[in-house]
Amino acid sequence: MIQTDDMLRKLNTYQRDAVLDNSPALLLNAHVGSGKTTVLISKVMYLHLVKEIDLTEMVVLTFTNKAAKEIKDRIKAENSKIKDKDMPYFGTFHSVASKLLSKVLPIQEIGYTNRFTIMDPDELFEMAYRLMIEHRFNIKFKNKLSKRMEAIKNGETLYGNMKREDDIKVLWECMVEEKRKQNKMDFDDLIVHATKLLETGVFTPKWVIIDEFQDCDRAQLALIKAMCGANTNLFVVGDPNQIIYSWRGSEKNIFQNFKRVYDAKEMSLPINYRSSSTILEAAKQFLEDSTELEGVRDEGSKIVVKNHYNPFNEAQYLCDQIKKLTSEGSVSYKDIAIFYRTQRQSKTMEDALIKEKIPVEVSVKKSLKDIPVLHWLVSLLKASINHNDKNNIITALNNKEFGEGLSFAKIRGIINNESDHTSILLDKIIGFLQANVENISEVYDYFALDDYLSPTSSTFLENKTLILDFIDSMKRYIDEKNVALTEGMREYLNSSTLYGLHILKDSIDAEDESVKLMTLHACKGLEFKHVFIVGVNEGSIPLRTSTAEARVEEKRLFFVGITRAKDTLEISYYTNPDDYRVLEGPSRFVDMLPGHIVAKEESKERQVDLQSMRKAIQKNINTQEEVAVLDEARPEEKASDETRVKHEKYGEGIVESEDEDSITVVFEAYGSKTFSKVFTSLEYLG
Ligand SMILES: Nc1ncnc2c1ncn2[C@@H]1O[C@H](COP(=O)(O)OP(=O)(O)OP(=O)(O)O)[C@@H](O)[C@H]1O
Questions:
Q1: Which atom of ligand 1 is nearest to the CA of 526?
Q2: Pocket (CB within 6 angstroms of ligand 1)
Q3: Which residues are 665's β-sheet partners?
Q4: Which one of 237, 390, 566, 585 is separated from 629 by 20 to 30 angstroms, measured CA to CA?
Q5: Any idea where the UvrD-like helicase C-terminal domain is (predicted)?
């Protein structure tokens, strides 16, 4: 047991006690940066190596695919004999529920087969809309359809009692039936159906281990409860100071309730290994209770608080700062992260970094919709392996760009044999399962995809490469899992719906040699040597909120951001935010930092005078003359559908619209993207 002894030796006493504890239910209250992930992995290894619990007898539930992957990777690194397939129930709540439904639970009892496919919220909405038209349902507040369906599902009603009820309830019942008919489940169905079937006691693992327990919602807690048999042990790890998803339904008093329901023992991990004591001192100001944050590191440097004129100045300053930090060689790009409150703030920053040739990765859960050709391909493949999937048949055929552009009525006519029209693509979809396609690489030729990608278009090669990469990634998945073609396709397509484009690349890779940009929500669980939190103005950080509870959550969110930093933390705010929702000057969060740990810096950088820049651009639009923006001669800018431009990353596209600050370009392969004019170097192709 040298391996286990070695592993245990590296832990501190608190961590070791938690790993060795034998209670049937343990709640580990882990302070920020106290080695939660380290302990969770050690616990799994200890149970496996010392207590000889098979990894298949453990369910390890996480909130992100990244966290699940990190846990599996670290276990594989500890023991090279362990492979992914040995840990079938290690994953996110949704992926584990999906695995149980397709492999373990008696799914036929709820009218499904284990070949079900997963639908994202867009697909769900499309289905609702189609049914609404087909059945001529009378639905009020159509623009609030998603919200109203959500309410119906939770047994609530929105907008009070109507004089005359509409058909929303009938639509909802029709959807439930239609999903069953098409053998499809939405994200919530995965959890709800798995919970229902688990209640029969067919699957009761020996251990259920949960990461980030503080963020579980009611449905997830029910799933956990349903899989716990009389002999199931529970090990849950969480930090009540990092609850940042209460808007998504994470349960209040979750820790107290857990202790009560499972008669659980509570232990804690109090020592923070991550941050300098100055950063911890800053973090303490944002705690709601008197939690002691004990650190082991030295004081480090002061927290820099800096003003900028506006986001453009800030972006330019950060580029200079990043160049300075990395120029000496001891800091690499991957050590640096920039956090903001809302995704829309990333645009200016990303453009500035690309312009300065600084490698950058923006963490955003991109759905397949963001790449139209892949979105279409997935519909086509989902329809081909499940002929009941009417919605995806329609989406694949109806698509004007890649499909056959057939109308809804025409498609219905062909499907129901009521029309003389034919569809080559539909014949291929229907014939797929009988066509003896043996290898996924043959899919491209089977569908003759060249013909659907407009071979003469400028984006043909780009789209073809995207499709071939996707097929290649699916092939790797099928080969690794060693599963039959259609089973592998279904599993892979389901994962692409759950994880979006991260399926092509293992999410944002902290080891990638690039500066990371992300929202405060996305930074949870990560750590970086140097962290910049931008836009710390009232109305941005914190956002304007209407309830006291939401205000407290803003504080916790800022706490999460601060505590990602290991060595340095810099906070900035705008004196001229250029957004009516955001107030000038530092927010109350800046004022909460004790003076003795703060180094205030006045910005000295060259200011971009937004007013004169705007005037110059306006003049340019009016007179169609070339003007220089930020010392750079730019070609004539005019808002015309025909204006073609080329972007370093996205290739060629057509200008859709532009205003003084931004320009929106439609790229065939990537869809519509908006850039800030100041930083984007778009090559005008005339
Ligand atoms: N016993 C230990 N000795 C030294 N360093 C440790 C020890 N335990 C954890 N660390 C280090 O402390 C840092 C934080 O650990 P980890 O990421 O596991 O914390 P966490 O509790 O998951 O953090 P958070 O909740 O903030 O996401 C990591 O860099 C980790 O390597």
A1: 27
A2: 10-12, 15, 30, 32-38, 239, 273-274, 525, 527, 563
A3: 655, 673
A4: 585
A5: 269-525
The H-assigned helical ranges of 229-362 are 254-262, 277-284, 311-327, 346-355
322: CA distance to ligand 1 center in Å? 25
Task: Output the CA 288–ligand 1 centroid distance in Å.
Answer: 22
Nearest CA to ligand 1 atom 6: 273
* Strand-pair partners of 29: 238, 268
Rounded distance between C-alpha atoms, residue 386 and residue 494, angstroms: 12
Write out the two tokens for 516. 């990371």
**Distance between CA atoms of 585 and 84, rounded to whole angstroms?**
50
The strands making up 336-340's β-sheet, listed across from edge to edge, are 360-362, 515-519, 336-340, 528-533, 565-574, 303-308, 598-601
Q: Let me know: does 535 contact 305? Beta carbons within 8 Å.
A: no
Closest CA to 141 of 152, 175, 249, 395: 152
Give CA–CA dist 517/24, Å, rounded: 41
Size (the chain), residues:
686
**Side-chain half-sphere exposure of 359, counting CA atoms within 13 A:** 11
How many CB atoms sit inside 10 A of residue 624's CB? 10
Helix, strand, coil share (%) of the chain residues, nearest 5: 45, 15, 35
Please give the mean pLDDT across all residues of the chain.
85
Give 659 Cα–ligand 1 centroid separation in angstroms. Answer: 46
Each residue's pLDDT tens digit, 319-345 = 999 999 999 888 999 999 999 998 888
What the block records as the tokens of 200 is 């029969």
pLDDT surpasses 80 at 683 = no
562, 567, 568: which is closest to 589 by C-alpha?
562
Categorize the per-residue pLDDT at 430 as very low, low, confident or very high, splitting at 50, 70 and 90: very high
The annotation status of 33 as a binding-site residue, yes or no, is yes
ipTM: 0.94
State the pLDDT at residue 591: 94
DSSP-based three-state secondary structure for 528: strand
Interval between CA 12 and ligand 1 midpoint (Å): 11
| pTM recorded for the entire structure | 0.78
Q: Atom 16 of ligand 1 has which residue's CA nearest to it?
A: 35
pLDDT of residue 628: 30
Q: How many CB atoms lie within 10 A of CB 141?
A: 13
The verdict on whether residue 238 carries a ligand-binding annotation is no
Number of DSSP helices (H) and strands (E) in the chain, helices first: 25, 24
Alpha-carbon distance of 425 to 447, in angstroms, equals 7
pLDDT tens digit sequence for 496-520: 888 876 655 544 455 678 999 999 9
* Pick from 35-39, 451-455, 624-628: least confident: 624-628
